[in-house]
UniProtKB/TrEMBL annotation:
Substrate binds at residues 27, 125, 169, 296, 396, 403-404. The keyword Hydrolase applies. Pfam families: Glyco_hydro_1. This is Beta-glucosidase.
């Protein structure tokens, strides 16, 4: 298969549905000498943390190649481009604005706008300035206030150039992977840390929302959450799976809409609890203009005496990063969130697959990825038909890039990157995306 098909009456084919591609600063930019160090620089420099011992010093060299990359984005015909801002590139250590860094992004935003591509800006996609980590990072409540200041400086500087701001990308990853199991930067491990970090990140989101609404009243302002729906193979495992769902998924969304953490918080020992101060839950539950949802896979759980839940190995078919391909979970995730919460308009801000791509005669025939996208586009369409207000979809990712703890070993792009030459080649999945968009 080399084309994507949606039913001819699909809402996704209407003019007002947004199709885009997404990236993140640390994963593509490089340009390390033009910014302050971040926690991922430090993590990469630590022995044994990154599968191929690589780092983000050069990545896709987007710092230098941004103009040709915008041409590339434009050639795909997308309506929108989701990028993130590197906090340590735009704010100096004393908290003042770094004009050189700000100008770097302003020229990108202006170039996108000149081509009629809507900029979707994420303020935090994991690259916390290292000096803030030195003060405790997300375990320190003060970092939430620093984030609010950063959001203020940036939104004032960018003016009305931005179509949509997301405060955070995937608080789950920053807090759980970064501060509880330590497989992401800053690599801190311990059940006493994960919930505390998550609370400060959600607080930072809530503190920044009114700033975004004030400084950028016309943009759609919200947050991006990731979900890995939880399943059980047997009735007996259902409770374990429900617990995991509260721990990994609902933990980050419920405070936004219900001003409360899931009920399992009442069964967690004190030392694992977040430090919730009076008024925090009201701050966190600021109204948002949109919710960004990232979906890749599901997880199956069984009960476990020590940990309550234990994840089972994913059944086939799996992608190159070992994640099961299970699009039905995408539809039911969207419909169930729609039942549980009063959702604002939803953007699918990430969806995609790592595949072991090869390039031959300047072609990447990634039909397995084409297939993944087809299944997941259908899954989104099904959710819309069932009444979920999904108004946009972003492919992750525009191009192959630094895949965090996996380094450059896993390729998620719809564009292939040859890291030796920095040559970009649109894969079959990207060509099919372009055709879907242009044939609307
Ligand atoms: C992140 C991306 C990442 C992708 C694939 C998401 O969790 O936002 O930065 O590359 O998943 O792992």
């Amino acid at each position: 298969m080399n084309k994507y098909k949606l039913p001819s009456n699909s809402a996704m084919l209407k003019k007002d549905f947004t199709f885009g591609v997404a990236t993140a600063s640390f994963q593509i930019e490089g340009g390390v000498s033009n910014r302050l160090p971040c926690i991922w620089d430090t993590f990469c420099a630590t022995e044994g943390k990154i599968a191929d011992n690589s780092n983000g010093d050069i990545a896709c060299d987007h710092y230098n190649l941004w103009q040709q990359d915008i041409e590339l984005i434009n050639s795909l015909g997308v309506d929108a481009y989701r990028l993130s801002i590197s906090w340590p590139r735009v704010i100096n250590q004393d908290g003042s604005a770094n004009q050189e860094g700000i100008n770097y992004y302003i020229q990108i935003l202006d170039a996108l706008l000149a081509k009629n591509i809507k900029p979707f800006v994420t303020l935090y996609h994991w690259d916390l300035p290292q000096h803030l980590e030195g003060n405790g990072g997300w375990l320190n409540r003060e970092t939430a206030y620093q984030f609010k200041e950063y959001a203020d400086v940036i939104t004032k500087a960018f003016g009305d150039r931005v179509h949509s701001y997301a405060t955070f990308n995937e608080p789950f990853c920053s807090s759980y992977l970064g501060y509880e199991v330590g497989i992401h930067a800053p690599g801190i491990k311990g059940k006493e840390f994960g919930r505390k970090a998550a609370h400060h990140i959600l607080l930072a989101h809530g503190l920044a929302m009114p700033v975004l609404q004030k400084n950028s009243p016309k943009s759609l302002n919200g947050i991006v959450l990731n979900f890995t729906p939880c399943y059980a193979n047997t009735e007996a495992d259902q409770a374990a799976s429900d617990y995991a769902d509260q721990y990994f998924n609902q933990w980050y969304i419920k405070p936004l809409f219900d001003k409360a953490y899931p009920e399992i918080i009442n069964t967690m020992p004190d030392w694992q609890q977040p430090d919730i101060q009076d008024g925090d839950m009201d701050i966190i539950a600021q109204p948002i203009d949109f919710l960004g949802i990232n979906f890749y896979t599901r997880a199956i759980y069984t009960s476990d005496e020590d940990e309550i839940y234990r994840q089972l190995p994913p059944p086939a078919p799996i992608t190159d990063i070992g994640w099961e391909i299970y699009p039905a979970a995408f539809t039911s995730l969207l419909t169930s969130l729609n039942e549980l919460y009063e959702l604002p308009p939803v953007y699918i801000t990430e969806n995609g697959a790592a595949m072991a791509d090869t390039i031959e005669d300047d072609k990447v025939s990634d039909f397995d990825r084409v297939n993944y996208y087809q299944l997941h586009l259908n899954a989104v369409n099904d959710a819309i038909e069932k009444g979920v207000n999904v108004v946009g979809y972003f492919a992750w990712s525009l191009m192959d890039n630094f895949e965090w703890a996996e380094g450059y070993l896993k390729r998620f792009g719809i564009v292939y990157v040859d890291y030796k030459t920095q040559k970009r080649t649109i894969k079959q999945s990207g060509l099919a995306y372009r055709d879907l968009i242009s044939n609307r």
